[in-house]
Each structure stands twice: as C-alpha cells, then as structure tokens.
Design brief:
Blueprint: E1 2-4, E2 7-11, H1 18-25, E3 27-32, H2 38-41, H3 44-53, E4 60-65, H4 68-74, E5 87-92, E6 99-103, E7 107-113, E8 121-127, H5 136-141, H6 147-153
Length: 155
Amino acid sequence: ETINRGDIHIEEVDLDGLVQAVVARGTLSAICITHLHGDHVFGLPGLVTTLALLERTDPLLIVGPTGLREMLHAMPGIRTDGLPFEVTYRELADGFEHEVVYEDEHVTIEARPIEHRVFCAGFRYQERTRPGSLDGEGARAAGVSGDTAGDHASR
C-alpha cells in the first residue's frame, strides 16, 4: 500500500484491515492487480461493495491483466452498474511493454510485465517531488552527507 497525501493506491486486495485504512486515511483512487489468480482478486468484490455501503462517490480505477473486468463481473456481488461511484477498468494486454496506468498531482503508477507462471504485471509507484526545505547544517550535524542529503531533501 502506498499512502500519498490522502490518496491510497493499493496493489493486490487483502481485505483484512484494508477498509479501515481507506476510511481512516483517505480516498482510494486506484487498485492494481498483478495477475488473475484468486488469492489476488477474490477480495475485490467485498472491498468494492463495502465502499458503496460507505457511500463513496469518487471514481475508482481498477488496473490489471486483460480479462479482469470479465472475471470480476462474473463474481457474485460486484455489479458495478449499480454502484454510487464510477468504476473504470484499465486492462493490460499480454505482450505490453510499459504503460503509465495512473497519474495525478501526487503520484505516477507505471506497469511493466514481470515473470510468473501466468501473465503478470508489476507496478511502480513514483511520488512526485514535493517542495520542502532542508537544514543543511542540521543534516551534516546528524551525519547525513553526499547524495543521501539530496534524498532527504526531496521527501
């Protein structure tokens, strides 16, 4: 899970504690599914319907391999046409090389194929640089030096 200024972007769906995190920390913007094995997608109907019960209205993006939408629509309890929010699917075709699948003012999520027994996508979350300040003297006094100081300045 990547938390980013109130938005939560989730890779895979483990329902334990997930709904509490969404309610407590902010708005769920995107769910990225790596592959279509049950242990990676079967929690999605419960999550989506719980979001509806919580009266969510913000749109939701679900990203994953081709066939994801069809698979989800075949599962009991996940009719997306009756939800109080829009669900958009972004399906990745077998053989794709690289795609930016989600982008907002805080984060970019890129997908690339990865090796697995079945077609599988990996996701890279890149936070945008946020303005900030760094106390150079304080950093040096704390033992921070070189490129490491630059890493801290961009966080």
